[in-house]
Amino acid sequence: MSANVYTIAIIYLLMTLIGIIENVKGPLILGIKDFYGVDYTMMGLFLSVGSFGFILATFFGGFLADKIGRKAVLLIGLFLIISGLVGISISPSFFLFLIFAFIMNLGMGTIEIGVNAIAVVVFIINQALMMNLLHFFMELEQLFHPI
Predict the structure, then answer these.
(1) CB-based contacts of 47: which residues, under 8 Å, 6+ apart?
(2) How confident is the model at residue 57 (pLDDT cuts 50, 70, 90)?
(3) What pLDDT score was predicted for residue 3?
(4) Which of 69, 91, 114, 141 has the most neighbouring CB atoms within 10 Å?
(5) Percent residues over pLDDT 70 in the chain
(6) C-alpha dihedral (59, 61, 67, 71), degrees to nearest 10
(7) Residue 10, pLDDT score
(8) Are 125 and 119 in contact (CB under 8 A)?
(9) 115 within 8 A of 145, measured Cβ to Cβ
């Protein structure tokens, strides 16, 4: 198979990964709240910190992709997601949990920028359709998410 087929499979899988992580947050909010003994205001802070990390990454991700390359941006994003998830799972305090949630969302935003930058180069034919499918894969997890 050609390298483009592998590249396309990887970018679709990465967008699916982002969708899965994003959609797992909702069902876990009550468990996180109980585990750390915080109120819903702090859970709102958790979601806000995550959104801020994602927004920050998408703002600077384009500059980073131009500076160090698309592949490096994807690898940095994966490293940030893995670091954030590991940190979240071992955080003894809610403050550390917030820091690792920020790092995880920073990684998700970085991956999204990297994937979009690569997709523009890889999808030569039917570019609009392929980009829409790419973002559909990010939302695909919602089909399996219980209401």
Answers:
(1) 25
(2) very high
(3) 62
(4) 114
(5) 90
(6) -170
(7) 84
(8) no
(9) no
| Spatial CA neighbour of 57 closest among 95, 102, 12 | 102
pLDDT of residue 107: 95
Residues in the chain: 147
Dihedral sign of CA atoms 4, 10, 12, 15 in order:
negative
Q: Answer whether residue 122 shows pLDDT above 90.
A: no
Give the pLDDT mean for 59-79.
89
**C-alpha 88 chain-centroid distance:** 15
CA angle in degrees (0–180, nearest 5) for 139-82-96: 105
The upper half-sphere exposure of residue 116, i.e. CA atoms within 13 Å in the direction of its Cβ, equals: 15
**What is the greatest pairwise CA distance in the chain?**
52
In degrees and rounded to multiples of 5, residue 104 shows phi and psi of -60, -45
d(C-alpha 106, C-alpha 77), whole Å: 7
Q: Please report, for residues 7, 13, 36, 56, 136, the alpha-carbon distance to residue 141 in angstroms, rounded to integers and kept in the order given.
A: 21, 12, 27, 24, 9
Q: Which domains does the chain have, with CATH numbers?
A: 3-142 (1.20.1250.20)
